[in-house]
């Protein structure tokens, strides 16, 4: 599967056209390719779209696998450059307080690609996923190198970047009961309902999967 996806990725010239920094790199896109091939979703939802670089890869994976899933993207502004409206639907809305209603309940089940950094949005999304057994989530920017263990930013401050440090590992550590967000113990956890794996990709891609899929 790796050989097939690597060849496909090279044909698409992703690295040249869109780069691999601050977006899905080939290794992370491959993980999503494997997930979507093993568990074809009813819906594909992206949280945090910006220019649509990751969306472009996900759309192409969907087409490569001949999936019939609808792709819905959520962001607070339309800055899309890399896909057309007939390929994915962009919803301009902050779903921090309405994640359950606007995503989980509206679309029922499927796959979520999460690439947004506000603390409360991450926490509400992960809590919702843990409480719902029908969704798989892949979360970008969960590597130890992007985690500042002494975050000085307010949890209400949306201006989060690699310079400030990201909240993702902090939230995952809180929810999965790990005291240190930098602990390697956070990277491979199985509970009674879900499994969490943080892959050692350039940005750190975390995947939370319901145990009935394993």
Fold and architecture overview:
- The structure is a single chain.
- The chain has 214 residues and is of the alpha/beta class.
- The chain has a single domain (2-213), classed as 3-Layer(aba) Sandwich (Rossmann fold), CATH 3.40.50.150.
- It is 34% helix and 19% strand.
- It contains seven helices and eight strands; from the N terminus they run H-H-H-E-H-E-E-H-E-H-E-H-E-E-E.
- The chain has helices at 2-12, 14-17, 26-38, 53-65, 99-107, 119-131, 168-176, and strands at residues 43-47, 70-75, 89-92, 110-114, 135-139, 188-190, 194-199, 205-210.
- The protein has an eight-stranded mixed β-sheet, sandwiched between helices.
- The chain is globular and about 45 Å long.
* Oligomeric state: single chain
The CA-CA distance between the termini, in Å, is: 19 Å
- Main sheet strand line-up: 3-2-1-4-5-8-7-6
Order of helices and strands: HHHEHEEHEHEHEEE
* Number of distinct helices: 7
Largest sheet: 8 strands, mixed
Let me know the number of strands. Answer: 8
SS content category: alpha/beta
Shape call: globular
Q: Name the CATH superfamily assignment.
A: Vaccinia Virus protein VP39
Kindly give the count of domains: 1
Q: Tell me what portion of residues adopts beta-strand conformation.
A: 15-25%
Q: Residue share in helices?
A: 25-40%
* Name of the CATH class: Alpha Beta
Question: Topology of this structure?
Answer:
Blueprint: H1 2-12, H2 14-17, H3 26-38, E1 43-47, H4 53-65, E2 70-75, E3 89-92, H5 99-107, E4 110-114, H6 119-131, E5 135-139, H7 168-176, E6 188-190, E7 194-199, E8 205-210
Parallel strand pairs: 1-2, 1-4, 2-3, 4-5
Antiparallel strand pairs: 5-8, 6-7, 7-8
Helix pairs in contact: 3-4, 6-7
